[in-house]
Amino acid sequence: MGLFDMFKGSPPELTPKLTLAVALLHMIHADGEVEAEEIGQVLQALGNDKALFENAGKYAKSNDVDAFLAESAKLLNDDQKLCVLLNLLDSLMADGVAAPQEQSLFSRFMSAYGVSEQTLQPYALGVSVKNNRKVLE
After folding, report:
1. 8: pLDDT confidence band, cut at 50, 70 and 90?
2. Contact 86/131 with Cβ under 8 angstroms?
3. pLDDT of residue 115
4. Are 53 and 40 in contact (CB under 8 A)?
């Protein structure tokens, strides 16, 4: 234990709900730039639960992506994994451009959760149509 570790407190215990929040935080940080609209989108996906958002930040600071993926893959059932992946997909496709870092991180989530591109393909099409607001002009 380091000299200042006593002031840190322990990270929150991972739950399915916290998993979604942490996953979204990792995704918005993937390209190295976090914009206010991305934080707003995460909060919206979390039902504006600021305590959950803060706990996700605490968890993410204490656990790297690989540890998080391993722990969350064991914790979640198949429906929960799909829910997290679809929320991530919606997040990374929201602006119409998925940065290479975001695509790479999403692939890591898919691999850790044992979900194939083929499984996600119909959902990705739906998310793409949902986010294409140009059709409304």
Report:
1. low
2. no
3. 98
4. no
In the chain, domain spans: 13-129
Tokens representing residue 106 in the block: 């999403």
pLDDT band per the 50, 70, 90 thresholds, residue 6 = very low
Average pLDDT over residues 7-19: 86
In angstroms, rounded to a whole number, what is the distance separating the alpha carbons of residues 117 and 114?
10
DSSP characters for 69-124? HHHHHHH--HHHHHHHHHHHHHHHHTTS---HHHHHHHHHHHHHHT--HHHHHHHH
DSSP tag of 15:
-
User: 13-129: what CATH class?
Assistant: mainly alpha
Secondary structure (3-state) at 39 = helix
CA distance 17 to 2: 31
Task: At 115, list the tokens.
Answer: 């979900």
Q: Is 33 left (phi over 0), alpha (psi -120 to 50) or beta?
A: beta
pTM: 0.88
* 63 DSSP 8-state letter: S
CA nearest neighbour of 68 among 102, 105, 99: 105
